[in-house]
Design brief:
Low-confidence stretches: none
Strand content: 25-35%
Order of helices and strands: EEEEEEEEEEEEEE
Helix content: under 10%
Distance between the termini: 81 Å
Shape: elongated
Structural class: mainly beta
Mean pLDDT: 85
Largest sheet: 5 strands, antiparallel
Strand order of the largest sheet: 3-4-5-6-7
Length: 202
């Protein structure tokens, strides 16, 4: 038979009938569905495939994908946001590369003037906008550091960078500027922990 009203405290299993019912336009297709419950998971969709599989999708009026949720063979989640042209422009991977394509990203605002725009609105204050952390979990060794790399080369190879380097096992930190001569990437300028500047020397 067909379900027209579903009400139960536990799991519901069954088969939709072949005849059209309220909110059912064809076999297995609902035009409206509201799920409520006191459980933390009022709706659960389970894949029976042990390998990589598509689990859930939202489609547009022309049947084009809008959002899809999948898993790989190790059950790592993958969510895709699709463009109207049929491209998976955004991916969130549970244990794989995540990416954003087809648009800029704004943090702290609703518009982005560049690929990544970070905005704050505190007047007359020095606001920290980005923090790079390299935490060894114990005493910091001399030479520990973080860097921002620049790669304006077709190979994608780093050709310049700004680096912060631990010069002591405490908080003493210097700033390094690296550039590429065409043959190698080397340090060209350093501001050491005491504020002294070395050009062509460390």
């Amino acid at each position: 038979g067909a379900f027209t009203t579903l009400s139960a405290s536990g799991a519901i299993t069954g088969t939709l009938g072949t005849a059209a019912q309220t909110n059912i336009t064809s076999v297995g297709t609902l035009t409206a569905l509201t799920v409520t419950g006191s459980s933390s998971y009022p709706l659960t969709v389970k894949s029976s495939d042990a390998d990589a599989a598509d689990i859930f999708r939202i489609i547009a009026d022309d049947d084009g994908a809008v959002v899809t949720v999948s898993k790989d063979a190790s059950d790592n989640a993958e969510m895709y946001l699709w463009s109207g042209a049929g491209g998976a422009n955004t991916k969130l991977g549970g244990n794989s590369v995540s990416y954003f394509q087809g648009g800029n990203v704004a943090i702290g605002a609703t518009t982005a003037a560049a690929l990544l725009t970070i905005t704050d609105n505190d007047n007359s204050t020095m606001n920290e906008m980005i923090r790079l952390v390299n935490d060894p979990g114990g005493s910091t060794a001399v030479g520990t550091g973080v860097s921002i790399a620049f790669a304006p080369h077709h190979s994608g190879t780093e050709t310049a960078s700004i680096r912060a380097i631990a010069e002591t096992t405490g908080a003493g930190t210097g700033i390094q500027l690296y550039t590429h001569s065409g043959a190698s990437l080397t340090e060209k300028v350093r501001i050491d922990k005491d504020g002294k500047v070395g050009i062509g020397t460390t």
